[in-house]
Structures are given as structure tokens and as C-alpha cells.
Amino acid sequence: MTLETNAALNVDPLLDDPETRIVVCCGSGGVGKTTTAAALGLRAAERGRKVVVLTIDPARRLAQSMGIDSLDNTPRRVKGIEATGAAAGGELHAMMLDMKRTFDEIVEAHADEERAEAILSNPFYQSLSAGFAGTQEYMAMEKLGQLRARDEWDLIVVDTPPSRSALDFLDAPKRLGSFLDGKLIRVLMAPAKVGGRAGMKFLNVGMSMMTGALGKLLGGQLLRDVQTFVAAMDTMFGGFRTRADATYKLLQAPGTAFLVVAAPERDALREAAYFVERLAAEKMPLAGLVLNRVHGSDAERVSAERALAAAENLDERRIVDQTAGKEEGRTGTSPTSPEGSPEGYPEDSEGSEHSPDDSEDSPEDSPEHPDSATATTTAATAFDQTADDTSVDRLAATSVDRLAAGLLRLHAERMQLIAREQRTRDRFTALHPEVAVTEVAALPGDVHDLAGLRDIGARLAAGDTPTGAA
Amino acid sequence: MSRLQVVSGKGGTGKTTVAAALALALATEGRRTLLVEVEGRQGIAQLFETEALPYEERKIAVAPGGGEVYALAIDPELALLDYLQMFYKLGGAGRALKKLGAIDFATTVAPGLRDVLLTGKACEAVRRKDKQGRYAYDYVVMDAPPTGRITRFLNVNHEVAGLAKMGPIHNQAQAVMRVIKSRETAVHLVTLLEEMPVQETLDGVAELRAARLPVGRVLVNMVRPTLLDAPALALARDASVRPAVAAALASAGLSGATKLAAPLLAQADEYAERHALEHAQRGLLADTGLPLHELPQLTEGLDLAGLYTLADYLRGQGIGHGTSHGTDPGTGHGTDPRTAPGTAPGTDRGTDRGI
Asked: Within the 54-83 window of chain B, which residues sit less than 8 Å (CB to CB) from chain A?
């Protein structure tokens, strides 16, 4: 089925290499990017590195899984790291990007007190820093630059913002740069300054018209707010620019590794392919693809088709049994079993009340906890009541048949899912056979603690096609 | 009857797909809907298997019963020029502004202006009437930003109206806010029956309510069919059942059944765990008191036919005036209609607020 196989991505050498200083996890929303970043951070820490994980808007549960009730803009040390022996000395710190706080800190650090006050109280600034589209991307880059500059950690694992377009953070510094290079900013700041130059009279007229138009559009008061803001930020813009450029270069440096995270779904892998191409164009070093939530089966030799056919065999026998049971009730003749009815499996009598159609029960209608003792008792009672034949064995055989048919349908669903995932992966492989891949088996539930993260880390490192695990 | 249908949801929940299915479902009986994309990803074009959508309203699908679905991918830059043209007749000046970088500034850097333009354009489509005074579109369905950003996105005009205390932008922002906060608008959240998306949905509902934005329905996507019911699961947990299962498998014509029973029962364990988790998540969603709708996971993945299937499920659940015109939505799409959760009675537990 697979046309070509991608090389396996081995994360341990990457995490162990002291030359690796930054790992960036990127990918579209909902693919487990933040969890992957946290799991990598934990694994690296337990292998002896001093790690900080920068998360962007993590689910509360993820913060809790690292034993931290809520993450904020300051790195917090995560307790319970099992770094012993050669790995002793490993540490994990975690933090969450606070856009407004990060922006405020920059202002406070780079402007004198009076100017900082003017900026912080400007309504335009307040809206901008509270995080409209785009600000998060700038601030993520800014924070990464800061963490790297502090040089307190030997590995920084970065999660990227949950933008629909996972690439926005790459564009942020450039966009800021082009804005700062633009003429607009000069118009906004001081039309008089531009017009004051010799031979610029014509331009001056144009500029006045522009500010006039902007004033008309924005309203005079907002334009004044914007102008005040830009003027106050003026001295800082150069710094912004320099740092944005520096961070961008940092991302291209050999110490940086990008991991594209995806799930084996069409949209997620399409974004991943796009990202791989974009990283290449930007000369950013791609380490590989993390494919989360991959399904496998230990019974792969039974195809979906065979499983469904076998399930039908079992159903048919039961339906015939039921019909026969009814006839038996009326006529007293013994039913003829369909082909394949095995020896030692007595026919059912009055059929259980569970027809194949029972599966249409809406989930709310089914008993609360399928695994609870109550459910078992209820089921058993139901069987007793319907058993006019009182042959518990025969009833049990029917319910085993029902179970077996259900197991086969479940397996067929799994096999169809595996096939679909394989098709989407093949499409990616055909486009990018050069990208190393590690696969992480799907888990039935979410991660709740360090042990869960550790398990994901182990799966990331094992990286081969999962079997069995859901 | 809300005419602006905003569809949000956590990344990966199939928000765009559900928005498209909703637009199809609402377009029955000769109605006309507009499906609006605001994030520039061309997801709608990919879903409907057409080329990339330009910044213009274009018919992309015909609904059963003669309805029509139009689509529009809003380009913030063009929307701004549109807007300038409309309000200020700034044709030439608009181009000059673009050269200056002002358009770039306005659509990428300036706080919220981008979102103002996107919501403004959608509201314009909601209010637009033809010469006879009829609405141009019966419904406008917006494929909106994800749950984490939706409140801020919809509330942007409120913020802008506060920033620009007078002038045309102020007035425009106020007008948009009136539509968004009225009964004309319903904000739906798409989720999966998994912990993180459900938590994000609950947070989103709380945020929307705190901002007094009209929350509509919760749309649970990719619901898997019930393949093992409670008695079967109870039996599967009984370790002594394995030989009997193996015998049943063998009798059904499978070779090596003894070795097959264990992995199949292991898969049942995982299923049970997920099933219990899904049940708990469903309970959390029900606690919001919002109407809940369920859409099945399509086993063959999503294609255009699958989109029509999902629209049929929505119609079957009373969306789009409840006329499911007697077709069996699952037929031919690889979904067993009997086991599909969406058709289960009692799934829609809320009062009918009208979608």
C-alpha cells in the first residue's frame, strides 16, 4: 500500500544533542501540538537537559498534568522529574505566553518611565496588546528571543500559536518589519517632517490628503490616539525590528529544530505538507513530522471485509435462531440452522430481547457505565426473564454470538480507519518522501499527569507504526 | 429564526465542514444561503471540490428541493477597499493608501480592524435586500474563527466603537454590534466528544454568555456509532468469555480464532473506555442547557457526498425546517443509518430556539 516509506524520526538523539537549543512544534490546531511540546520537554529533562517549555494557550488540563494549576508568563519549575544517574541534573520548567504582559514588559524595558506610562495608558496600545489577530504571533517570537537571550536553559521547546494558519508566526517579524519600513508610519508620526524637506511639496500635498482620509476613516480622536501611540513607540520600533530579525535568524540557526505535528487526517496533513514546503523556502531546519493519534490493530490480518462478513454470519444464525424460536413456540418443530452453525452451540429459544437493531440505542439510552456491576446484573436479569427455556447456556451462547459480532464490527471500523489513515499518509509521503516521521499511537483518553506525558514521550521516541494500542 | 449563523469550534473539530453542511441544510425548499469564510484558508473551496474562491459571492452548490448555496471568501484587504469605496468614494485615494502600506497596516497590524471588516461584511450580507425589498439571502452562515478567539472576534466592534468614539467607523461598528447581539444571530459551537474540545466548548459558552452574545447550539461532530451495547461490554469484561468468543469466531468462518479473541477483546476494552468518556462528556455538554445535535463520523472520510449526508442529518434533527424528505441519509455513504447517533430520538434535548 505504501509507495515509499519515510525514514523514521528518532527524537532521542535530537533531544540529547547539546547542540540542539530550540525545538519548535508547529502544525494546525487540534493535532496535539501543545501536548507533544510538553511530552518532548519532559523527556528531554528526564534525559538530563535543563528545559523550558513555552506553551501558547494550553488547556488547563495540560498545565495540571505538569502539576501546575495555571501557567503564567514566568517559567515555573515542574516537580516530579525522574532524572537520575547520567541524566541527573535535568530540569523541566513550563510557562504560558501572556501576550499583554510580554508586550508591557517590552515597553517598560525599552522606554523611559514617562514614555512607558504614555504608551501603557494609550487606548490604541491597550487594544493592540490585549491580543487581536497577529499580536500573539509577534509576542511568541519576542518571548522565544527573550528566553534564548537569558541562556538559563539549554533547551527551549516552543509550542506555536493555535492560528488556523499555522504559519502566521513565521510571517510576524517580516510583517512588523514591512510596516516599520513603510511610509505610513512616517505619515502617521509627523506629516510636517516629511513635508519639511526641500522639494517634497508635492508629496506633502499627497500626505495631507492621506492623513485627511485616515482622519475621516478613523475619526479624528482615534487618529490622534494612533499618532500619539506611534510617536511614543518611535524610539522602541528600532529595537522591535532588530529583535524580530534576530529571532528570525535564530530560527534558521543550526541549533534549532522544527517538528511539524499532524494527525493522520486530510486537512492536518495538507497543512503539514504546506508547512514543510514553507520551512524549506525559509531555510528553517526541519527535523521531521510527528504523526499523532495513529491507529493500529493486533488483529490486522483480518480485513474489514472479512470481519463484516463473519459478523453477518453470526447475525444470520441468531436471526434464524430467533425466528426458529418463535416457530418452535407455535409449531414445536426444531429449526434448521443455517450453514456454519457449529456443533455444541445450542439454538436459542425465544431469542433475547436484543435484536441486531439494538445498536441504534442512542448513547443516552444505554446504561451509564457499561463496565459497572449494575449493567451486568441488569443484563443477566433481562436474560433470565426472557428465558422461557431456562437454558442459561443457550442464552449465553446467543449473547456470546452478539458480542463476537459486535467485536467484529468494531474491528471492521478500526480497519477502515487504519486504511483511511494510511491513504492520507501515503499522499503526504508521495509529496515529501524526504521527511522523517515518528508515529504516536492514539490514546483512548486525554493526558492527566506526568506519567501520561512520559508515556507519550516514550511513544514519540519509539516512533514505529503502532499495533494494538488504540 | 436567526439569519446570521456563526459556526465556531476548536481546531480539528470540523468547524468548516459543519458550517458547510449547515448552509446546505438551511438552503432547502428553495431558500438561498451564503456561506462566508473569514480566515483565508480556502477550506470551503476544498470541501466543495472547486477552485479557490475569489472575493465575490458565487454559487457553489444546489440543495435538494432547489435551494442554493453561495460562498464568499472574505479578503480583508479587498473588503477594506470595498468599504472605502462604499462610504467615501475613495477610489484613487484607496489605491494611494495601499501604496503607502495603510491597507496592510489596517488589515494586519491595526488592532481589530481586520475583524471589523470581516464581521462588517457578513452583517452587510445579512441586511442586504433586493429591489423588491426581500432579503438577498435567507441565511448567512459564517465559518468563524476558533472557540478561543470567537468572543473577541464578535465583540471587536464593541471595542472599536469604544476606541473610535465618533465618526463613520464608530457608527459602522455600532450598527454591526446591533446585528450580532440581536436575535438575528446565533453562535454555534462545534465539538468532539473528547475532553479538551468539550472543555473549550464549555469555556467558550461561558465567555459568549458573559459578553451577552447569543449562543445557539452545540454541534457534536464525528460521533462514532454504538457498536457494542452495555450487555455486550459487560460480557466482554468477563475474562472467562474468551474461549467462547474464540469458538464463536471460528464458527463464523474465521481461521486462527483462538489467537484472534484476545486482540478483539482488547479493542473492546479501549472502546469501553472511550465510550464511558464520551458519555461523561455528553453529560457536561448537556449541562449547558443548550440544544445538542450530533453528526456521525463518516467512515469513508469526508467528500462532497458526505457533506450532503451531514446536511441531511441536520435536517433530520429539525434544522432547515425539519423536512428530511424521506431519504435515508446513511444510504450509500458507508454509514449505517440505524447505528448513526444523529438520528437517535431524544438527542436534541434543548428547547427549540430556532436555529
From this structure: none
Chain B residues with CB inside 8 Å of A469's CB? 270
pLDDT digits 0-9 by tens, A302-322:
999 999 999 999 998 877 766
Lowest mean pLDDT among A357-361, B116-120, B215-219: A357-361
Instruction: Summarize pLDDT for A240-260 with one digit per residue, the tens.
Output: 777 778 888 889 999 999 999
CB contact under 8 A, A410 and B227: yes
pLDDT tier at A136, thresholds 50, 70, 90? confident
Chain A residues closer than 8 Å to B100 by CB: 182-184, 187, 210
What is the value of ipTM here, to two decimals?
0.81
pTM (2 d.p.) = 0.79
Whether the Cβ atoms of residue A334 and residue A328 lie closer than 8 Å to each other: yes
The pLDDT value recorded for residue A189 is 60
Q: Are B44 and B20 in contact (CB under 8 A)?
A: yes
Q: What is the mean pLDDT of chain A?
A: 76
CB contact (8 A) between residue B102 and residue A165: no
The verdict on A443 touching B (C-beta cutoff 8 Å) is no
What domains does chain B contain, in order, with CATH numbers? 4-224+286-343 (3.40.50.300), 230-274 (no CATH)
State the cell numbers at A362: 442512542
Task: Answer whether residue A327 shows pLDDT above 60.
Answer: no
**Domain residue spans of chain A:** 304-412
Can you give chain A as a three-state secondary structure string? CCCCCCCECCHHHHHHCCCCCEEEEECCCCCCHHHHHHHHHHHHHHCCCEEEEEECCCCHHHHHHCCCCCCCCCCEECCCCCCCHHHCCCEEEEEECCHHHHHHHHHHHHCCHHHHHHHHCCHHHHHHHCCCCCHHHHHHHHHHHHHHHHCCCCEEEEECCCCCCCCHHHHHHHHHHHHHHCHHHHHHHCHHHHHHCCCCHHHHHHHHHHHHHHHHHHCHHHHHHHHHHHHHHHHHHHHHHHHHHHHHHHHHCCCEEEEEEECCCHHHHHHHHHHHHHHHHCCCCEEEEEEEEECCCCCCCCCHHHHHHHHHHHHHHHHHHHHHHHHHHHHCCCCCCCCCCCCCCCCCCCCCCCCHHHHHCCCCCCCCCCCCHHHHHHHHHHHHHHCCCCCHHHHHHHHHHHHHHHHHHHHHHHHHHHHHHHHHHHHHHHHCCCCCEEEEECCCCCCCCHHHHHHHHHHHHHCCCCCCCC
Residue among B247, B254, B263 minimizing CB distance to A310? B254
Q: Compare CB distances from B108 to A134, A225, A311 and report the shortest one's residue.
A: A134
The closest alpha carbon to A132, from A100, A109, A90, belongs to A100
Q: pLDDT tens for residues A33-67?
A: 889 999 999 999 999 999 999 988 666 767 777 87
**What is the pLDDT at residue A346?**
41
Lowest average pLDDT, out of A112-116, A122-126, B4-8, B335-339, goes to: B335-339
HSE-CB for B316 with a 13 A CA cutoff: 24
Position B288 scores a pLDDT of 96
Q: Measured between CB atoms, which of A164, A226, A361 is closest to B226?
A: A361
